[in-house]
Design goal:
Blueprint: H1 17-40, H2 48-56, H3 62-96, H4 108-123, H5 128-150, H6 159-183, H7 185-196, H8 204-223, H9 225-231, H10 235-240, H11 245-267, H12 273-285, H13 289-313, H14 322-342
Helix pairs in contact: 1-3, 1-13, 2-3, 3-8, 3-11, 3-12, 3-13, 4-5, 4-6, 4-7, 4-11, 5-6, 5-11, 6-7, 8-11, 9-13, 12-13, 13-14
Length: about 350
């Protein structure tokens, strides 16, 4: 067997730390490019120079008002929500060792939706600020309920029990939600757009109160990268490495509640971000969650930004809820994923 010439260069692996860091930088630049496109394209096209002036030298003109009060909050919320959902999905897949898991497995979306529907039904409120906090509380309570149900029994919390508990609770709350909407046409009319998932009509006054919770969730998630990598190999392996698995699972669950609950509170039911992005990211960077989680944050933000832009342009000057666009993308991916798992 002949050896390669001594002068042949050794190229680093595409999953080496150098390439991973480079990929993070490229992903960040790509996200900025997507956000700039969102600021320029829409019902009214605005050139980049006007966008720049609106951000740096606001003069109160119509285009500047559109940029600063309508499009900029929407762009920021789409990026934040996409990042939160993707990181929550990556945590859930690592925590449960289930490649089909996403934030919905904890019943967060169903709990948040039911809380908003019930609040609207009894109080008749249509305030986005009220929806935000009610949805956040509903998602958090549903998550606690799922973990409580999943911990019943001698074996404690297991991935299978967690999945079953979340699925059962989600179906139960969805049934209650549907029943309430059937009883009240007024409630359905008032929250129809929110139910479909949307980042339209939000402003920074909605984002800022929820942002600290999302940042705390991201901080906890990024701090658990090494532990989730070990946990994804199995509880026995993780415990053999000296990992306190109960504490890791509890902190990861808190991070998921903060991220997914806050995202649902801000934008309603937006599905499949937490399912798609972790799979795509793991293909590129491997199974090390120290890299999976930051990559998931960037590409979750990118995917939701692109989906929101497409939702605005596909039937311009009208627009679709972004939840419909993510469902079109995610539904196809989910079918492919389930078929590949069955094989």
């Amino acid at each position: 067997m002949t050896q390669a010439p001594f002068f042949m260069p050794r190229f680093p692996s595409w999953r080496s730390p150098l390439f991973r860091r480079l990929g993070l930088g490229i992903s960040g630049l790509f996200l900025l490019g997507c956000m700039m496109l969102e600021l320029t394209l829409g019902a009214a096209e605005i050139d980049l120079s006007t966008v720049w002036l609106a951000l740096t030298a606001f003069d109160g003109s119509t285009n500047h008002l559109i940029i600063t009060t309508v499009r900029l909050p929407r762009v920021l919320i789409a990026a934040v929500v996409g990042a939160a959902l993707a990181v929550a999905g990556a945590l859930m897949q690592g925590l449960t060792r289930n490649s089909l898991a996403d934030p919905g497995i904890l019943g967060i979306s169903a709990g948040a939706t039911f809380a908003v529907v019930i609040t609207t039904f009894f109080l008749g409120t249509t305030s986005i600020q009220t929806y935000t906090w009610v949805a956040f509380a509903g998602g958090a309570i549903a998550s606690v309920a799922v973990y409580t149900l999943g911990s019943v029994g001698r074996s404690g919390i297991t991935p299978l029990k967690l999945i079953l508990s979340g699925t059962v609770l989600a179906y139960l709350l969805s049934a209650f939600t549907t029943g309430t909407l059937i009883l009240s046409q007024r409630t359905l009319d008032e929250i129809r757009f929110w139910l479909a998932g949307s980042v339209a009509g939000r402003d920074l006054g909605v984002l800022l109160p929820v942002l600290p919770y999302l940042l705390l969730g991201l901080f906890l998630a990024f701090g658990l990268g090494k532990q989730i990598t070990a946990l994804a190999l199995g509880d026995e392996v993780a415990q053999g490495l000296g990992l306190q698995t109960a504490w890791v699972k509890a902190i990861a669950a808190i991070a998921v509640v903060l991220l997914a609950g806050g995202a649902v509170a801000l934008a309603g039911q937006i599905g499949f971000i937490g399912l798609i992005i972790p799979h795509v990211v793991r293909f590129w960077v491997g199974l090390d969650y120290r890299w999976v989680l930051p990559y998931a944050a960037l590409w979750g933000a990118i995917l939701l930004s692109v989906a929101d832009l497409a939702a605005r342009l596909v039937i311009r000057p009208q627009e679709l809820p972004v939840g419909i666009m993510t469902a079109l993308i995610g539904g196809t991916f989910f079918i492919y994923l389930t078929r590949s798992k069955v094989r």
